[in-house]
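Might I ask for a little of your time on a matter of protein folding? The record follows directly beneath this note:
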Amino acid sequence: MMKIAMIGAGSTVFMQNILTDVLLEDCFKDCYVALQDIDEKRLKTSQLVAEKISSTVKANPKITATTDRRLALKGADFVVIMIQVGGYKPSTVIDFEIPAKYGLTQTIADTLGVGGVMRGLRTVPVLADIARDMLDICPNALMLQYVNPMAINCLALSRMLPDLRYVGLCHSVQGTAIDLARDLGESIDDIEFECAGINHVAFYTKFAKRYADGKVEDLYPRLHGLIDGRDYGANYDGCTNHVRYEMLRRLGYFVTESSEHFAEYTPWFIKNGQPELIKKFDIPINEYIRRCEDQIEKWDTQEQALLSDSPILCKKSVEYAARIMHAVVNDVPDHINGNVLNDGLIGNLPANACVEVPCIVDKRGITPQAVADLPPHLAAIMQSSINVQALTVEAIITGKKEHVYHAVMMDPHTGAELNLDQIWKMVDELLDAHAGWLPTLN
């Protein structure tokens, strides 16, 4: 019986998506699902939702719920990670409020920038502990790592625990491909693409339509034709796509992550004293705060609906987890885009980087595929993010606080807004506010 451990399963809605995908596969209808979380109340809700999903899709899995992580991991074949260290309160709120005091505004703050650095500092030690437990208890299990900041987390895992079998997973590549097909009035089933880079800053080096007769049409000219009239829709999170289409105009390629994310990865869109940029590109400042508050406000009603006698919607998501499990267990090759160490995969990005590249999945697990060198201007944009990621990991591994300052200095958005004294004071204040959640830094 295949066993799936879901660590952080109190993230009920995400657990619901992954488990639904799994149980819709006929070969997994009698699998073993171990739910684990440190929040007993949310864990209980997730267990009840999991049982409801099972009933709806007519599956008969063994479902357990525990706060004991090692118990959940025992005998696992796959380990899905969906934790958030520090939660919305206090940690996410701190990551927004303190930088705002210095005039540094953010949109999402979970991947790059000072918010991403702080989230990485508090998340990596917990991920490493989970990974050590896996190597001890279920050394052959495959970790499916969904936690942000993706590149920082995965780079740290590769450096600290090189024997760990893992892949970092995100839905931005496949989600954005669906959005672009929609913008062009095409079916995603007819789309062929090639995409590579780093998480949230990967680009489609090919985006094309394959016709029934085998003809292939490059769709980039049509995408360019949408720019001036803004003849495109919102992204999969409901925000406008103005930043990304502007980057298409300037760079010639479309980036995978949303405009609200990408706006804070660069120095060009969120600038003190230039509110017209915010208006022009419709940049949602404090967007992640808004989403979290909205989720909190609606959670009680949502929880009641999930636990009621009313039917639960069970449809496949765009997440890769169930596809990976199916490919590994049944040795039916599949193709995904995954986050792994750059072991010669992208020649013009450094080796100490986590890259997001095409991967083949089969009984061997995840086999990343090397791609051609990226256009130099795209590699240059990625390098600015890689600098921040690598320095954050260096701080975690060495325990040297100086590298936290260096990481934040190198962040494009922060460096464009704050001087060095402001950066130092802001970092000190953030480190003090997060005390207890962070590794020891000297």
Q: What stands out?
A: The chain has two domains: 3-87+111-170, 88-110+171-285+319-442.
